[in-house]
Amino acid sequence: MEVSEILMDRMDKYLEGAMSEEEIKAFESELQTNSELAKAFEQHKETILTIESIGMKDEIAEVIRQNRNQGEKKARTVSFNRSAIAVAASIVILIGAFFFLKPSGTSSGPSLYSSLYQADPGLPTLMGATDNPIFSDAMVSYKEGKYQEALESFNVLSVANPGNDTLAFYQGICYLELNRTQESIQSFDQIDPSKPIWGNKAAWYKAMAMLKADEVQNAREILEQIATDNNHRYQKEAQSALARMSE
Amino acid sequence: MGIRLLKRAPVQADYPDDSALIQGITNNERKALDTVYQQSFGQIKQFILHNNGSEQDAEDIFQEGLLAVWRNIKSGKYENQKNVKLSTYVFQVCKYRWFEHLKSAKAKYSTRLNPEYDIVEEDNLAQLQEEEERASYLRSLFEQLGEKCQQILNLYYYKKKSLAEIAQEMDYTPQSAKNEKYRCMQRLKAMHQA
Questions:
Q1: What tens digit of pLDDT does each residue of A187-219 get?
Q2: What are the backbone dihedrals phi and psi of residue B145, each rounded to the nearest 5 degrees, phi first?
Q3: Given an 8 Å threshold on Cβ–Cβ distance, is A50 in contact with B142?
Q4: A38: part of which helix (H) or strand (E)?
Q5: Which helix (H) or strand (E) holds A4?
Q6: How many C-beta atoms surround the C-beta of residue A122 within 10 A?
């Protein structure tokens, strides 16, 4: 059914509670008798809900971001007020960091990598009898830093579970830790970057692998994408990484 | 999904109780979201940090969880939980989602990870994923509209601004704001059906 502008106004007025009682009665009885209208009305509501969901998701992200920034500001102020020693100490640290970081050259890929990289903490391994013992063992090895052992188990599992994002991700991290950067990048490439959790993680660690391989330009491209994506969980990290790269 | 009747009411300064807060959420008020954040985020963060998660995980889960709560309030699903305090409900939804996330991370290996979540009427993992995929598809359609269209639809349907306010903000006459709103809505629906 073609919705005219007049009809759309009526539907909006109805939803907003802006109709008189008579208008409401008339509209509702039309809805009852005209199934085309009822269908168009459902569709209208669904489209509005889509628009609202998008607005809501963005606004929640904004609330989180703003509160996080305020929290950080507060934390900074508190530590500043606590004592002059803290200030003095941080100046000493800053000077130290300056001398420590400068000569090593912050723009080279591997040195950026070592200052930015933090291993993923892994997944919990408290599992019951029904769980896969190979995965559990692999995770334990991973957490103990035995990346070669962990990798072997992940490889076995991935034969049986092709296309599994979790496995691809931890394979990528193991390769990265074992300095096999190209294989690491390939593992991360198997994960769809639009997936909210594993996709985000894979994109960030892929950039790390590229830095380690000294492919600075490629890493920068990924980091730029992350940095401009307001929904990306590594947005802040990517922004500060880019800031350091342009120092 | 049903939509509650909305009144273009003036924004309330604060929320003396849950029902005022819920009304604020229904009206998409920023201040209501801030209030929920203040009430619940700290607790959720503590919980996720103690259960193998990071601060970022906490933020992701809070974002998804609050969006789901908002949707449940709009659709009337929350009313079934009327005797539950809103902050408790938000916490439970987030907790459930975090367990689902951990479970999905190794769904192929375990049938259940931790049975201790206590919310009954939540969607299962497959539904959550489907919902997420659909949401990102709908967003991609919306983003195909021009910037002005996105803005006018957001101001009218999300921010609940009047056409007169929108006209002023976007430099339209009230009549052309109305026409634009109609035109953009029709385009979005057409893409939706295509």
A1: 998 888 887 778 888 999 999 999 988 888 889
A2: -70, 155
A3: yes
A4: helix A35-82
A5: none
A6: 17
CA–CA separation, B186 and A11 (whole Å): 14
With a CB cutoff of 8 Å and minimum separation 6, the contacts of A209 are: A172, A175, A176, A181, A184, A185, A188
Please state the separation of Cα B17 from the chain's center in Å: 20
CA–CA separation, A224 and B81 (whole Å) = 43
Number of C-beta neighbours around residue B49 at 10 A:
13
Nearest to A130 among B62, B111, B179 (CB): B111
Interface contact flag, B154 A56, Cβ < 8 Å: no
Residues in chain A with CB shorter than 8 Å from the CB of B49 are none
Question: Min CA distance, B165 vs chain A (Å)?
Answer: 16
Give the pLDDT band (50/70/90) at residue B12: very low
Is A53 in contact with B135 (Cβ distance < 8 A)? Answer: yes
CATH 1.10.10.10 fits B131-193, yes or no: yes
Q: Would you call A81 an interface residue with chain B, using a CB distance cutoff of 8 Å?
A: no
Question: Is there a contact between A60 and B66 if contact means CB atoms under 8 Å apart?
Answer: yes
DSSP 8-class letter at B157: I
pLDDT above 70 coverage of chain A, percent: 82
* Domain range summary for chain B, segments of one domain joined by +: 18-111, 131-193
CA distance B14 to B35: 9
CA angle B57, B59, B64 (to 5 degrees): 95
DSSP, residue by residue, B27-88: TT-HHHHHHHHHHHHHHHHHHHHTTT--HHHHHHHHHHHHHHHHHHHHHTGGGGGTTS-HHH
The ipTM estimated for the assembled molecules is: 0.84
C-alpha–C-alpha distance, residues A189 and A246, integer Å: 26
Domains of chain A: 3-101 (no CATH), 116-245 (1.25.40.10)
Place of tokens 């590594």: A234
CA A60 – CA A64 distance, rounded (Å): 6
Q: Is CATH 3.40.50.300 correct for B18-111?
A: no
A112, A106 contact by CB (below 8 A): yes
pLDDT value at residue A110? 85
Smallest CA-to-CA distance from B146 within B87, B111, B191 is with: B191
